[in-house]
What we know:
about 280 residues, globular, Aminopeptidase, two-stranded antiparallel sheet, binds zinc ion, six-stranded mixed β-sheet
Amino acid sequence: MPTPPFAVISIRAFKPAWAGTVGILAIVIFLLIAQPTLIPADAQLDGYVIAIDPGHGGRDSGSSHAGFSEKEITLLLSQAIAEEIQSRGGIAILTRTTDTDLWDQVTYQEEIEYTKQEYELDQQLGRKIDPRDRGIALGTRFPPTYRLGLRARILTAQKHNAHVLISIHTNHYRAESAKGAVTLYQTHSLESRQLAAAIQHYLKELLPGRAEPGISPDNFFILRRSPVPTVLVEIGFVSNKHDRKFMLSEAGRQAIAKAVADGIQDYFRHLAAWARY
Ligand SMILES: [Zn+2]
């Protein structure tokens, strides 16, 4: 079908003098609005180092239910999360890739030294001191073995200059009805709380729980002692049928990985926005 001639005539005939300016403005506005989509979708975590810690491992199995142990599920989940991060241009550091407890990575003497330094810092900063840390620093208590493996995870994150550390766990409760994701954050860190809220925002859509907001401060060793913003994500309950099935399915793990990565991405985007003010 030929183009109707009146279309050309009408544009020529009624084009006002300011049409050119409006056109340029429209392009500028379009570019401003469209800008986020101009960043390639696969580069949104570009430049960020994210340490992912599959909780437990080796002699430390974590909780178990119906023949599945926490250490196996956390490794599978963490590997899926790491792949998702890499696909978005981020650098994912896994604190373990095999079934190991990492207890041989740090000696008791080294752990005592780290604890002494932290104890002194706690005193200087006027921080609340954990009685276990005080005991180890003052020599009245010996570090428990599992603590060496936890220290190794923190050291791995530090060695790679990770921007954040995400420790992956699963929950367990005697009542099968308990379900849903819970994210724990560092009492002393606002960044940690923001990161927890960002991750939980997406995870709770997949694994809804009963309690809101689903994030809470905690004093677990890895949260208390990690110098980078750290969260501990209890992805779901192994003791709940729905949560367990979801975490053990390939599709479920992909969705969980996407949710965690979306949360991390939101956190960094907000951090960048705050830094501009
Ligand atoms: Zn755990």
